[in-house]
Amino acid sequence: MSRKDLSKDQRDQLAKLADLPDDQIDTFDIPEAPAENWAHARRGDLYRPLKQPVTIRLDADVLAWFRQHVEKGGGYQTEINRVLRRYVTEQERRRS
């Protein structure tokens, strides 16, 4: 795909569209994507979830296991997040 610069008129039209409130943008002719289109969707490689610092009590042996078995290049907290995210995703799939 090639990338072309927008004309002044096109940039003006985009600016006007960006200034409109969402409820004033007519999307009637845009079809909704069927749910099955999302079955194999995945987040892009650049997706970075919002992190929220929390205090959580973990069993000492569980924490020690993650600290010892962390994959090279990642921290134990990242690995705990990966495991929890996989669990949450599986639970969401079962409920839908």
Please describe what this structure looks like:
With 96 residues, the chain is an all-alpha fold. Helices cover 44% and strands 0% of the residues. The protein is built from 3 helices and no strands. The protein has helices at 8-19, 60-69, 76-95. Helix 2 packs across helix 3 (76-95). The radius of gyration is 22 Å and the shape is elongated. The two termini are 37 Å apart.
Summarize the structure.
With 96 residues, this protein is an all-alpha fold.
Q: Descriptors for this entry?
A:
96 residues; single chain; mainly alpha
Count of DSSP helices? 3
Largest sheet: none
- Uncertain spans, ≥5 residues at pLDDT below 50? none
Distance between the ends = 37 Å
- Tell me what portion of residues adopts beta-strand conformation: under 5%
Radius of gyration: 22 Å
* Structural class by secondary-structure content: mainly alpha
Number of distinct beta strands: 0
Which shape, going by the Cα principal axes? elongated
Average pLDDT confidence is 87
**What is the helix content?**
40-55%
Q: What's the helix-strand series? A: HHH
